[in-house]
Structure formats: structure tokens, C-alpha cells
Amino acid sequence: MRTALVLAVAVMANYLGAQFFKRFYWSSQTGMQLSSRSLSVLRSITNRVTITLYYDTNPNDDAAEFYPMVLALAKEYTYANPNLLLRTVDYVRQPGEAARIAERYKLNATGGKNLIIFERQPDLPSDGVGPYKIVAGDALVQNGLTGISKDKQLEFGPVAFRGEEAFTAMLLALQRSHPFQAYFLQGHGEPSLNDTGNFGYARFAQAVAENYVQLHPLELTGDQPVPADCDLLIIAGPTAPLGESELQKIAQYLSQGGRLWVLFNWSSIQRPTGLESILRQPWGVNVAADYVKDPESVGGGAGVIVRRFNTQSFVNPLGALALEMILPRPIEKVEWNHPPPDAPEVQELVFSSPASTLAGDPTAAPRSYPLIVSVEQKNPPAAAGSGGETRIVVAGDSQFLDNQVIAAGANRDFVGYAVNWLLDRPQLLKGIGPRPVAEFKLTMTPSQRRAVDWLLLVALPGAVLLLGGCVWLVRRK
Questions:
Q1: Quick check: 28 and 65 in contact, CB under 8 A?
Q2: In whole angstroms, what is the distance from residue 39 CA to residue 44 CA?
């Protein structure tokens, strides 16, 4: 009977917890861990970094609703690396300290509240201010549609907590005096970096920026060359041919040790962009004028789930996950009969299943097709003596990184891997990146809190006492 009592109490407690609470715990005691990518970044930090939480910690303040999660996350970062120091300043309860913080980081000019400040201490002892970055607490929370009310009105609110993504990005930014500069080609039907619709690239731009890379639109019209400060050139999904002068500028940029990421898609099969010939000679990449159909790994609609990865390449950590691609084109290594001695190294990175066929040639025997390749050539001829190194990534699909699909599978993770391999940052090619947290502590109204208090403090103990009394009476008889 006692066992039944304990089970009854456990069932009731779990029911109440499921109905009234939805909590997320982020601390070293709970087993919740930072992503392997964040840990890799933390291991690379040797300078002292101070994390200051500049918040009004009043629990009744709606603006500080996520403060407990931010505090727990900050503690987790300091547990992972003792070079990180945590400081909390309540600007309402600690006006003197708040004034010093506001003066030190020039907060009075912006009037900012509920901020996270990351400061790297100078290499030499100094009373001055080291390099610092500030992120608003509101920026850690992604809002969106949460449901429909009883009167059929759309309800909006927090749908994801992106604290880890922001913390890791800020720490990464502190390790370099200025961000890498990337340029995104426009003018040939490419998606827009500002477009938040399904087929836009706004989320792609955000994913690139999280790697401390500043992304700019670029048009190579007239005499405009590839900018001299271009660390990475991105060409995604052009649907119209590039001009001859544009192709020459891109070819020259690559010959001088440039970094290029090209994403083709099925819509350019009938209208070649001109990039195909540049990639074939001299870089040894063949872009097929067809797309892959894979009956063994079909996603929704025209999607193809890709689970085969080259374990000897930078995509190896994605092997436990999958990419979801849309009508991907085969991207293959050119097999030269007599390759030149300085031929670049081409690696095929991801592959469709062995059951794949080509849409334009369904009678061909099924086989696995490579869908993304990388190219590397140290000291290309035009960059001789400069220590330059050409790196290229070519993907047979651009739609798998648009706003609608980028969150699927490992698509967003692939952005980080491709960008960091192209920029030669090996410390960021380990493990999987941070994931947004979609669970929050439920905020209740006073009446709801009273109902929960009544259930927990009166109804539950009362039920246990009543059941115990019944057991006592039975035994007395």
C-alpha cells in the first residue's frame, strides 16, 4: 500500500509539472552542455575576458524575464574556461556601480538596458578599456507566431532562445581586431540578403555573421573589381549568365589566392552562368547540367536527404546528421588523363545514395553522385611569393540555404563549416554549432499562480493525507 501511495504522489507531481511548468535548466549540475563548437572556441581563448550582465533583475520586470537563462548560460561559459570572469550589475539596485559601467562602456549615449558586455582584457596591465562587444538581451530571444487565441487572433511571443549562438559569436569577435569581409554577388537573379521571405537569404546572412564575418552585396559591373579587402566571395544561385568581364574578374581573383563559395541550382541548367567553364579549367570541377533524384532518401517534395559525407574532409563532424537539399546538381572532380604538376587538390565532400539517378537520364545505372566539392591550391601561380592559397567550395544547390530550408538538418551547420574552412580557421571546424533553445519557463498570471499554490499546498497534501487515513482505517478494522 505504501508503494501505491508513493507512486500516486509521483504521478500527481509529474502531472502538475507537465501541466503548469516547462523549464529549461542550463548548468553544469544538470548535464546540459554547451555545443562542441562553443567549447572549441572557448578552448582557444587564452586572454582574460569579462562578461558583465547589466540587468534589472527584478523578477516582476517583463524585460528581465530571460535573465535567469542568461545568467545560467554565462556561468556555463565560465565553468568551461577559467579565463572568463562573470560580473553581474543590477542597474536599479546598484546605481553607483551601474554609473561606473555606463561611463566605462559609454552606455549613457545609447541609454541601453539589459545588456551583456564582453570585454577582453589588454595583453599588458592597464587601467584602460580593452576591446569589447555589447549585445542587447532582447537580441537573444527570437519572437514569432506562438498560436491562435480563443477569439482566433494570432498570438506572437518568444519561440527560441539564441543565447549560446550570441555568446560564442561575441567571444569569437573579441579574438580578432576586425571582422572578415565577405562579398555576395548580385545582379544575376541571386537571392537577396535582406529578403526574409521563404526564398530569401536573410537567415544565411545571419549564419555567416555569427562567424564574425561581415557580408556585403557586390555588383561587378563596369570597372568595379573584386574589392581588395575581399576575404571571401560568395555566388549563390545565379539564374542569368555572368558577363565576360565579370568572369574575368572572378578568374583573376582566384588566381591570386582568392576564396570562393559557389552554389548552383537546377534553374541554371538550361542557362549556364559561365562559372562552369572557370571551375572546370583550371580548378578541376565539373558542374553537371542535370539534377539528382534519390528514391532512397527523398525529403519533402523535391528535397533529397543527404547522409553520406567524406570523413577525411572538413564536413566529417556532420556525419551523424544530414543535409536536406533541393534538386541538387552533381558536382564532380574532373579526372584528368595527364594532370599538371601544380593541379589543385579537389575533394568530393557529400554524396547522394547509391540508388540515385539523373533526372535527364533515367535509364543510366543508379549510383552515388557527389553534390559538393572543395578545391585547394597552395601558392597559385599569380600569387607566387605572397603565401596566398586559393580555396573554393562548390555546391550543386543553393535553395538548401534559403530561409525556408536552412534550419533543416545540418544545413545551417554546413554554413559555418564552409565559411570557416574557406577562411582557414581550423579551430572552428570541430563539433556541431549551438542550437536555439525552444523551451522556456512559463509565466503565469496571479490567478494561475494561486491555483497552482492551492493544488500544491492544499489539494496534493490533502489527497495524500486522505489516502493515508483510509489506509489507517482499513488496518484498524
A1: no
A2: 9
Q: Locate 428 and state its grid cell.
A: 572552428
Reading the block at residue 97, the C-alpha cell is 556601480
Superfamily of domain 22-162: Glutaredoxin (3.40.30.10)
Contact (CB, 8 A) for 163 and 440: no
Q: What is the pTM of this model?
A: 0.75
Alpha helices in 119-237, H assignment, sequence order: 163-174, 202-209
Cβ atoms within 10 Å, residue 50? 16
Domain boundaries, the chain: 1-21+443-477, 22-162, 178-428
pLDDT tens-digit map of 8-27: 554 454 444 444 434 344 44
Q: Under CATH, to which class is 178-428 assigned? A: alpha beta
Start-to-end CA distance of the chain, whole Å, equals 16
Find out whether the peptide bond into 282 is cis, omega within 30 degrees of 0: yes
Give the separation between CA 447 and CA 439, rounded to whole angstroms.
Answer: 23
The distance of Cα 99 from the centroid of its chain, to the nearest Å, equals: 35
Distance CA 329, CA 318 (A): 20
Cell of 466: 486522505
The model's pLDDT over 405-417, given as tens digits with 9 standing for 90+, comes to 999 889 999 999 9
